[in-house]
Design a protein that fits this description.
The complex is a heterodimer of chains A (161) and B (538). With 161 residues, chain A is mainly alpha-helical. Chain A contains eight helices and no strands. Helices cover 68% and strands 0% of the residues of chain A. Chain A is globular. In chain B, the strands form three sheets. In chain B, strands 14-13-12-11-7-10-9-8-17-18 form a ten-stranded mixed beta sheet. In chain B, strands 3-2-1-4-5-6 form a six-stranded parallel beta sheet, sandwiched between helices. Chain B has a two-stranded antiparallel ribbon with strand order 15-16. The longest helix of chain B is centred in the N-terminal third of the chain and has 30 residues. The chains are: A mainly alpha (161), B alpha/beta (538). At the A-B interface, α2, α3, α5 and α8 of A face α1 and α2 of B.
Chain lengths: 161, 538
């Protein structure tokens, strides 16, 4: 908490901006998938390049429906928490988990195909950077500075006074 | 921390608190709007094209007394056909069980065990190689059914313990055995090409047409979902007038060039050499000729009968265009100069000057089509099968894609409005998109990509050979005509032979639609030419 106090308003504004941009990205992906009934993560999962047994299991007939729904729900949920600045710590952690799942299915290793990726990556790619940025959001929540958290926090603290 | 003690918020704070809400609204609106536009344009396309990708109703019931099957030829294809009707060799079961233990994603054994019981018995086998015949007897005999080995095919055909025969021998035995089977009152399933020369093609057609037994040729791709979808595409005239078709064979591995294993126990003591040779020219025992018979015209049919026959029938089952008016072929032995006399690079142009798939243009403007078949056994780049029409091009394999043509008449408005763009498929049917296929070799991949190995029913992968044999068995039990019957078989065989003959003779071979026969060429015996070396014919 002390670190938070030490942050300048400008720094808090910049981190809030980062938080909203990442939230924007998650929410847009989630909404597109929500409104596209034929979308499925199956192809992405079955073509996984590491831990393929795990990803194949997720892509199996019995699980894929739940996996697809969960993916959309988590994307939207993370997007909402980050943009609105409400429970963003939990949202950021969920987001890190989801991004790591994406990352390890198609990691930027030397010999992996990196299907669909534009640009050139070695170990570090956009998924990994976005996950790291979410860790920053997790460590330095700004919802009470710019977001709905402001009301909740004040309310709870009022109760404790 | 002065905020903590406040009970009310300033307007500025409220704005900062809820500033995210309009962002959420904007992003949500943008995403929903984009999705809706995408789905509207998809719906517009699907409505315009109205292609039905539904599978045919399954073939009929397998109830009743078991059908008793005799197997003639228990080599590579013979064992595959047996598996398709539910009988696997012990050695295969052991091998697949080991593979499944080491690699859980290998589901070949599981799929085999889950396959429907077709209510058949294998009661007889005939193979001139002792090892194979004994393998079948040993693997398929049960407490109830003792598989009997017959030394000659004629004995098997005459056996009262056999209702139907499956023939998977070298090509030069297909017709004599099929004819003997039909004459003996057996139902017949014969591998492709249906025959090995012209005379026996005419003869088999006559006998099969006058027989009340069910006759089928082993072009299993007729069961492939994508080809059935393609039939609907043609029926709805989506491609417009198809003027050119290209079909190809692209292989670059030993197995694909018919360099099969030579069994270590092969000898005059274990192989009935005289019976293998049959009506082919007698030569001294030669194990390579026995196991790699596809490399010689005396027993096989080269690229024309072996692989062109597949590609031709794949197109014929979609277009039903029949036998070409004329055929011109060329090629040579350029990639495998190992003593074979069949070409390994081979091109054929087939002319269908009276045929049309339909038109979207003015009447009388278009008619006629060329099918170009091009093959090499020295390169495996996957050239696609393309049906090229005035309005669109169809890419055909186990998947199916349709691309609009820039010069289309039918879809001009959609192209101008940007609803359709050249280069982006306007229709895509890919049953494998959600499936990882365990493909074991380059040749297997070649066949799988062509839709020759498996297809899909209700989203599940199904062996198309199983469906094809099931259809034949259903016709035996419930009546009906198999999809690759004597008519389709005749068209496939005659076309393949025309291509082989043209290569040998270096000239055009013509077909007379009225008589249903080839137009003779003075001084040339077609059957002799088909069997001989190109050099000798020239």
């Amino acid at each position: 908490m002390n670190e938070k106090i030490a942050l300048s308003k400008n720094a808090q504004s910049v981190i809030s901006l980062l938080r909203i941009l990442i939230g924007w990205h998650f929410l847009y992906e989630g909404v597109l998938k929500l409104y596209n009934p034929s979308w499925s993560a199956k192809a992405y999962l079955v073509s996984a390049e590491t831990m393929s047994a795990f990803y194949q299991w997720l892509a199996g007939d019995s699980l894929i429906g739940i996996v697809d729904t969960l993916n959309v729900v988590v994307l939207i949920l993370v997007g909402l928490t980050l943009i609105l600045g409400f429970m963003e710590k939990q949202g950021a952690l969920l987001g890190v988990g989801l991004l790591l799942l994406y990352y390890f299915a198609h990691p930027a290793f030397m010999n992996s195909a990196q299907l669909g990726a534009e640009g050139n990556y070695w170990i570090v790619n956009k998924n990994l950077i976005e996950a790291a940025a979410l860790l920053v959001i997790y460590m330095i929540p700004t919802g009470s500075f710019f977001g709905l958290e402001m009301f909740r926090k004040t309310t709870t603290q009022l109760k404790t006074i | 921390m002065s905020q903590e003690n406040k009970k009310t918020w300033t307007r500025r704070e409220i704005l900062k608190g809820i500033a995210g809400a309009p962002v959420v609204g904007a992003v949500w609106w943008a995403g929903a709007n984009k999705s809706s536009k995408k789905s509207q344009s998809r719906e517009h396309l699907l409505k315009t094209l109205n292609i039905s990708a539904s599978p045919p109703p399954p073939s009929g019931s397998m109830a009743g007394d078991p059908i008793r099957i005799g197997i003639v030829g228990f080599g590579i294809r013979g064992t595959q056909l047996c598996r398709a009707i539910g009988f696997a060799q012990k050695s295969w079961l052991n091998e697949k069980s080991e593979q499944a233990k080491n690699n859980p994603s290998n589901t070949q054994l599981k799929s085999f065990l889950e396959q429907e019981n077709l209510n058949v018995q294998i009661t007889a086998v005939c193979d001139v190689f002792d090892v194979r015949a004994e393998d079948a007897v040993d693997s398929f005999s049960t407490d109830e059914v003792n598989v009997k080995r017959y030394r000659t095919y004629t004995e098997l055909m005459e056996s009262p313990e056999v209702d139907a025969v499956i023939i998977a021998t070298p090509d030069h035995w297909h017709a004599p055995m099929a004819i003997a089977g039909l004459k003996a009152g057996k139902h017949v399933y014969v591998e492709k090409p249906m025959t090995h020369n012209i005379k026996e093609t005419y003869e088999l057609k006559e006998i099969a047409e006058s027989s009340d037994k069910v006759f089928a040729v082993g072009h299993q791709h007729r069961q492939t979902q994508s080809f059935l979808t393609a039939q609907d595409v043609i029926k709805k005239n989506i491609l417009g007038h198809v003027s050119l078709i290209q079909a190809n064979t692209n292989r670059n591995d030993d197995n694909g060039a018919w360099q099969y294993n030579i069994h270590e126990d092969a000898s005059l003591a274990t192989i009935d050499w005289k019976q293998f040779i049959g009506n082919a020219p007698m030569i001294d025992f030669n194990a390579e000729h026995f196991f790699r018979w596809r490399k010689w015209w005396a027993y096989g049919s080269g690229l024309s009968g072996d692989l062109l026959s597949h590609d031709y029938d794949r197109i014929n089952c979609v277009l039903n265009m029949g036998i070409p008016n004329s055929v011109m072929s060329s090629g040579g032995i350029y990639t495998h100069r190992d003593g074979r006399n069949v070409p390994d690079v081979f091109q054929t142009n087939m002319e269908f000057s009276e045929f049309s798939t339909g038109t979207s243009q003015s009447e009388g403007k278009v008619k006629g089509m060329t099918l170009v078949y091009s093959a090499t056994l020295g390169n495996s780049y996957g050239r696609k099968t393309l049906l090229m029409g005035h309005d669109a091009t169809m890419e055909l394999g186990n998947s199916l894609s349709i691309y609009v043509d820039q010069g289309t008449s039918r879809f001009r408005e959609d192209v101008e409005k940007g609803n359709m763009q050249a280069g982006i498929p306007i229709f895509d049917y890919d049953p494998t998109a959600n499936e990882v296929d365990g493909i074991s070799s380059a040749t297997t991949k070649y066949f799988a990509d062509k839709g020759l190995l498996w297809t899909y029913r209700d989203g599940k992968r199904v062996d198309s050979t199983y469906l094809h044999l099931r259809e034949w068995l259903s016709c035996i039990r419930n009546g009906g005509t198999p999809s690759c019957d004597i008519v389709a078989g005749y068209e496939e065989a005659i076309t393949s032979h025309m291509a082989g003959l043209s290569y040998k003779l270096g000239r055009r071979i013509d077909y007379d639609r009225e008589s249903g026969k080839l137009i003779p060429i003075n001084g040339i015996d077609f059957d002799k030419a088909l069997l001989a070396n190109k050099e000798k014919v020239a």
